[in-house]
Write a structure and sequence with these properties.
By secondary structure, the protein is an alpha+beta fold. It is 25% helix and 22% strand. It contains 14 helices and 21 strands. It has helices at residues 10-13, 56-65, 112-123, 160-166, 172-176, 236-245, 289-297, 301-309, 341-347, 365-380, 392-397, 425-428, 445-454, 459-475, and strands at 5-6, 36-41, 70-72, 79-81, 84-90, 93-98, 141-145, 148-152, 191-197, 201-206, 227-232, 250-253, 265-278, 314-315, 355-361, 384-390, 410-412, 415-416, 479-491, 494-496, 510-512. The strands form six sheets. Strands 12, 13, 14, 15, 16, 17 and 19 form a seven-stranded mixed sheet that branches. A four-stranded mixed sheet has the order 2-11-10-9, with helices on one face. Helix 7 runs antiparallel to helix 9 (341-347), helix 8 packs antiparallel against helix 10 and helix 13 (445-454) runs antiparallel to helix 14. The radius of gyration is 22 Å and the shape is globular. The chain starts with a strand and ends with a strand. Keywords: Signal. This is ABC transporter substrate-binding protein. Pfam families: SBP_bac_5.
């Protein structure tokens, strides 16, 4: 089962790698007319407002009700028409020319002016959107004229076409009352939310008049479901049982439960499955880079990868969790300390007696085993460890959103990943909460210098500089990407015309079989 993931731009959540996998279910038996589709997510998504969330499960839900300016083909990572039918880009300006027939679920038109209002809402500091700077550049000027949306910046912005093109767009009434979107929807998507039962399910109904979906999908396309139910199913065993019994049409399942799903078709999407993040608060022993390096050196990351992925994954090579990404590089090789428990014990001798509180995701046996392995390695190196486990929301509340930043020392379960490196600086540098989103308090001047330089570059030169920026993080053991897992979405009685990433599917991709 996937861990909760943060800072993942919606666009790049569908930038799925062309990995070996079985194909979609055969449609020889035909498509269902006005069928029902049920899919699982592994935790409650919380606030569903796409302007204010950076939680992947909320974005998964949003993909049924909200469209973006661009659709990115998951095989080629090339942009295709969605709400925008054409576009232009330069280092400091992008334009999107929108279709002239887009309507919202409430029947009102969606225009370039509405698109500009979305981006300007995010840009307004008073709204405190976490998508400001990560998706919408903080120095952007956003205007609309006719059907054309124009965004300009004062300095080059790599990947701006993709970042802005990924944002799920809200209709005018939702912008006027953003609180109405927390447990509802108001967008241009194929489905609209009817009911939200916290901790249990979200139900949606297909709308009429939808004409602009990916791969020419419309409201009348054969096999498009009439209703969608998104069920919150934390247990992979339960998800597997529901797939086998027909209680679910799609779910991401990993680990031993996959053995029971061999007869079902699946689509694979490798993503980061393990990451250690250290707390850099001045009161923490992990504020010292030598301590972080020693703690990392105490762990055999190959062994930890095998535990986390149950032998099915491989070591992570960077923070770029999707394949292919807008950049492709290995920023880890030669930077992280190599496994040497004796050296770790010697280096940690001066901090013996210090307590490390490891917040971890205990939602699966493999994740609990991974945390226990890490704790054992650290204790063998002479450090006292307190394990503090819980579900994904618990991990979030006690790390990323912790009211007291001194209550955790390290985490194993919180994951930052994206297909574009330009997303990360606001989470890995700059002000700490409540003034910023640098939740771990990382202060790495070499990272900031390289990331600043990369932002003014393009193409391979930019990617090489982003690689150097990440390498600076790993050289200081600020955080440690551990493992990649080829997560699979399994299908029963349905298929997708678009390859998913860890559960993310545009609503228009679904086809229910008869």
């Amino acid at each position: 089962m996937r861990t909760r993931t943060y800072a993942l731009p919606l666009l790049l959540a569908v930038a799925l790698g062309a990995t070996a996998c079985s194909g979609p279910a055969s449609s020889d038996e035909g498509f269902a007319k006005n069928g029902a589709f049920a899919v699982a997510i592994n935790s409650d998504p919380g606030d569903l407002n796409p302007l204010t969330t950076n939680i992947v499960n909320a974005q998964i839900v949003g993909a049924y009700s909200y469209d973006s300016l661009l659709f990115v083909d998951p095989e080629t990572v090339k942009p295709e028409a969605y709400l925008a039918e054409s576009w232009t880009e330069s280092p400091t300006e992008v334009t999107y020319t929108l279709r002239d027939d887009i309507t919202c679920a409430d029947g009102t038109p969606f225009t370039a002016e509405t698109a500009a209002a979305n981006l300007n809402w995010i840009l307004d500091p008073a709204n405190e959107s976490p998508r400001r700077e990560s998706v919408v550049p903080s120095d952007a000027t956003i205007t609309a004229e006719g059907n054309t949306l124009t965004v300009t910046t004062t300095s080059p912005r790599p990947f701006m076409l993709y970042d802005l093109g990924s944002q799920q767009m809200v209709c005018d009434a939702g912008l006027a009352d953003p609180t109405s979107l927390s447990a509802g929807s108001n967008g241009t998507g194929l489905f609209q939310i009817d009911d939200v039962v916290a901790g249990d399910s979200i139900t949606l109904t297909r709308r009429d008049g939808y004409e602009w979906g990916p791969k020419d999908t419309t409201s009348t396309t054969e096999g498009v479901p009439k209703t969608v139910t998104i069920k919150i199913v934390p247990s992979p065993s339960t998800a597997a049982n529901l797939l086998r019994s027909g209680g679910l049409n799609a779910a991401v399942v990993s680990g031993k439960d996959e053995e029971r799903l061999g007869e079902l078709t699946s689509m694979s999407s490798p993503t980061i499955s393990g990451m250690i993040i250290y707390n850099h608060n001045a009161e923490m022993p992990t504020a010292d880079a030598d301590v972080r390096r020693a703690l990392t050196q105490a762990i055999d990351l190959d062994t930890l990868t095998d535990i986390l992925t149950e032998g099915k994954g491989e070591r992570a090579k960077s923070l770029l969790g999707e394949e292919p990404s807008l950049c492709s590089y290995d920023s880890i090789d030669g930077t992280l300390p190599t496994y040497d428990p004796e050296a770790a014990t010697a280096a940690l001798a001066g901090v013996k007696g210090a307590e490390i509180t490891l917040i971890y995701d205990n939602s699966t046996a493999s994740r609990s085993a991974a945390a226990e392995y890490v704790a054992t390695q650290w204790e063998d190196a002479g450090v006292k460890v307190t394990l503090d486990g819980g579900d994904e929301n618990y991990v979030l509340a006690n790390t990323f959103a912790a009211e007291d930043p001194t209550k955790w020392t390290a985490s194993l379960g919180l994951i930052l990943q994206s297909g574009t490196p330009a997303i990360f600086p606001q989470y890995l540098s700059g002000p700490v909460p409540p003034d910023g989103t640098n939740f771990a308090g990382i202060q790495n001047e070499a990272y900031v210098e390289a990331a600043t330089a990369a932002a003014d570059l393009a193409g391979e030169e930019a990617c090489n500089t982003w690689r150097d920026a990440e390498a600076a993080l790993f050289d200081a053991a600020d955080l440690v990407p551990v493992s990649m897992t080829p997560f699979k979405m399994y299908f029963s009685g349905a298929e997708s015309i678009i390859r998913p990433v860890g559960g993310y599917l545009p609503g228009a991709a679904i086809r229910v079989l008869s």
